[in-house]
Design a protein that fits this description.
- By secondary structure, the protein is α+β, with helices and mostly antiparallel strands.
- It is built from 2 helices and 2 strands.
- The protein has one domain.
- The protein has helices spanning 7-16, 30-35; strands at 20-27, 49-55.
- Strands 1-2 form a two-stranded antiparallel sheet.
């Protein structure tokens, strides 16, 4: 799953870029479609889709 990043890393990158009020909310419902990407490999235990919100003053 190329391009995946840890939530803490994403928060740091956004903050380093000048964003504030950073909110990253994992979408639990994403587990169902992530299972289909690699059946039987439990990728849904490591990957998640998320909504990201931040402000740039």
């Amino acid at each position: 799953m190329a391009g995946a990043a840890l939530i803490d890393d994403l928060q740091r990158m956004l903050a380093d870029s000048g964003f504030t009020q950073i909110r990253i909310k994992p979408k639990e419902e994403s587990k169902s479609f992530i299972q289909d990407w690699a059946p039987g490999r439990k990728m849904e235990d490591y990957l998640v889709s998320a909504t990201m919100e931040a402000m740039k003053p």
